[in-house]
Design brief:
- The structure is a homodimer of 398-residue chains.
- Chain A has 398 residues and is an alpha+beta fold.
- Chain A folds into 3 domains: 85 residues, 3-Layer(aba) Sandwich (Rossmann fold), CATH 3.40.50; 68 residues, 2-Layer Sandwich (Dna Ligase, domain 1); 200 residues, ATP-grasp fold, B domain (D-amino Acid Aminotransferase, Chain A, domain 1, 2-Layer Sandwich).
- Chain A is 33% helix and 24% strand.
- In chain A, strands 9, 10, 11, 12, 13, 14, 15, 16 and 17 form a 9-stranded antiparallel sheet that branches. In chain A, strands 3-2-1-4 form a 4-stranded parallel sheet, with helices on one face.
- The longest helix of chain A is centred in the middle third of the chain and has 18 residues.
- Chains A and B meet through helix 1, helix 11 and strand 16 of A and helix 1, helix 11 and strand 16 of B.
- Chains A, B: Its EC number is 6.3.4.18.
- Chains A, B: Catalyzes the ATP-dependent conversion of 5-aminoimidazole ribonucleotide (AIR) and HCO(3)(-) to N5-carboxyaminoimidazole ribonucleotide (N5-CAIR).
Chain lengths: 398, 398
């Protein structure tokens, strides 16, 4: 059976390895060290850096495809690997749009896909400052400043409150290593994510559109499917994601994060060309998980059935608490399993740190369950795993 | 998180590792070599023999529990490990009944559980021959001769047709290394399996009773739940399995294989104290898979929900064909995925050999699907994976 290499040893690689096992494979992982979540569990680990061409070459040796757990590999190295015949999936020509928010915005705008108003602040500092002022005035200073590259989970995004704050952030960041852009702050009802996958053959497949609930700038909860989403809007989101994957030549899983505006329109927020937090619900809630699908896509296998297995599935992230509880993760798991024998837990083998994603819980609703009930259970389980506190105040010793 | 060691590197260990990953663990495997199915995929492999105490000790070092992928570890070695404080699960006092069919029959009979008539042929050869003759006469020579230890997948079982054949098998085998027993050949409607799990705390959980379809003496297809099984009979089977697990002090998953007789009674056939082929359907068809449940049990975690996810689930084994097809497994998988995007395939990373279990396919029925349709699809998929031939004659080039 073929070998696929994934660059990065995080939880996405860890969970992709689970799916690789079913397909008769072992995922090869380029990890930075033996405690990386995927390095702990794979039988084929290359240690090295995703920023060193020789390490990438070693990881790619004999593999039929090279793919990614994160967007951090410098484009030049990927182009070098492609020139040497490595099947980089998604290819560098597509991945650049996931690495560079400004390129992404420009390309989306070219394709006529709905994006928030934005401004390029990457040039000469004085000129960029003037641009920011014009952009802010035009948007009533409902403005977000973003790092063009490298941001994730709330990092590299500044929610600025008015002109003074915006200029202060700009003055602090501009001229340094961080290339900046400004974006209109969209008045939104909620955030959605349209996950799709695309194979080299050109086959595309879309999962149901989900609602993502953010806390402190990162994903906390995913509701699948997005409750009460207009059917036409859902189809529009799926079609936008499939079309974009096709136009960019994406290979593998892709998440298109969207805003649903207060007046019911869609605006594209971010892109990720890999398995994504908004697709973790598929592990227990869809016929084909995003991890298996990503492998099928990069291997140019026909894609799997994306049907949900239940009317409602909710995923809640286990995020490191402000104060790590005294009770061990192992003991917390005991208590959770005692209370919720149907909760599907996925732990990543990571140390706990405030707001760090260390696992997630999926709760698959029974027929007729409403989304609030399923969500309450998923969040209660995840909060317990983070804090060793039950959100409903339950105390077995009381 | 705790480490569990599994002795044996076969497909059961491979699939247990998949479940260990979700629980934040890495399964440690004692494997005979790097091509063992589990050794290919786990990040924690000890190479050695399950018949060498020092190898077992090395594998057990630092693990919270030691468990098994097969029944082949000599009891004396397990007792030695237990004396050294290793948490052997299931413990030797239970496992002996899965290793020795005669001990098992005696114990089941003592407990009043229904067993076929049987005879101990382990003693003096001449006396045992006389016993066989008396036993055969009593049962109209509807007789099976079995090896007391070490048989599996049809090995160590002789279906003899009448007195002459029975005595011929006896005369050939008796006095050698193989200890023998005779059993009444039960006139049966079909074979069933009741899978349960039990934790050290004493919690038990049962999955729905399934029908197992045997070919050439080994499991080929599993129908979950067993179609048209009387509700009381199903509950009786579950209760027998739960009671036996409790009486024997089993820890982990246990399969009780049963005959449903022509007149609708249950008779116990075999026991396995580990994840079992008749439970593979749970990977895609139940809230908690047998592999996760086995880990939960050996770790003394509360057990998971055993509810099925659909009205009908069918598992079909991918068995090596008489002639290995020219088409590679990888290419066969392409074609299967193209035709059946909902088929859940589990390949074990094993070389193909006639009748060897190299993988399995689960098909989870849609609401309202009848069992024949789901079975036809699962068998078609598995036969394709074995033979590169579609059972319905489909030819994409025609």
């Amino acid at each position: 059976m073929p070998t696929v290499t994934m660059i990065g040893g995080g939880q996405l690689a860890r969970m992709t390895h689970q799916s690789a096992i079913a397909l008769g494979q072992c995922l090869r992982v380029l990890a930075s060290g033996p405690t990386d979540p995927a390095a702990q569990v794979s039988g084929d680990v290359v240690f090295g850096s995703h920023e060193v061409l020789d390490d990438l070459r070693e990881a790619a040796e004999g593999a039929v495809a090279l793919t990614f757990d994160h967007e951090g590999v410098p484009l030049g190295l990927l182009e070098a690997l492609e020139a040497e015949g490595v099947a980089v999936r998604p290819p560098s020509k597509a991945l650049r749009f996931a690495q560079d928010k400004l390129d992404m915005r420009n390309r989306l705008a070219e394709l006529g896909l709905p994006v928030p108003d934005y401004a390029d602040l990457s040039g000469d500092v004085a000129a960029a400052r003037d641009q920011l002022i014009a952009f802010g005035d035009r948007n009533d200073w409902q403005v977000v400043i973003k790092a063009v590259r490298g941001g994730y989970d709330g990092r590299g995004v500044w929610l600025v409150d008015g002109r003074d704050k915006a200029l202060a952030v700009f003055d602090e960041q501009a001229g340094g290593d961080t290339v900046l852009m400004a974006e209109q702050k969209v008045t939104m009802r909620r955030e959605l994510s349209a996950m799709v996958a695309r194979s080299p053959y050109g086959q595309g497949a879309a999962w149901p559109v989900v609602e993502t609930v953010q806390r402190n700038g990162q994903c906390a909860v995913v509701l699948a499917p997005a409750p009460d989403l207009d059917r036409e809007i859902a189809q529009q989101a799926q079609q936008m994601a499939l079309r974009l994957a096709d136009e960019l030549g994406v290979i593998g899983a892709m998440a298109m994060e969207l805003f649903e505006t207060a007046d019911g329109r869609l605006v594209v927020n971010e892109l990720a060309m890999r398995p994504h937090n908004s697709g973790h619900w598929t592990m227990d809630g869809a016929v084909t998980s995003q991890f298996e699908q990503h492998l099928r896509a990069v291997l140019d296998y026909p894609l799997g059935d994306t049907s949900p297995r239940a009317e409602v599935v909710v995923m809640a992230n286990v995020l490191g608490a402000e104060q790590t509880p005294e009770m061990s993760v192992d003991e917390r798991l005991h208590h959770l399993f005692a209370r919720m024998p149907d909760a599907k837990v996925h732990m990543y083998g990571k140390g706990e740190r405030r707001d760090r994603k260390v696992g997630h819980v999926n709760v698959v609703g029974a027929p007729g369950d409403d989304v609030d009930r399923v969500r309450e259970r998923a969040e209660r389980a995840a909060h317990w795993m983070s804090h060793a506190v039950w959100t409903d105040g339950w105390d077995p010793h009381a």
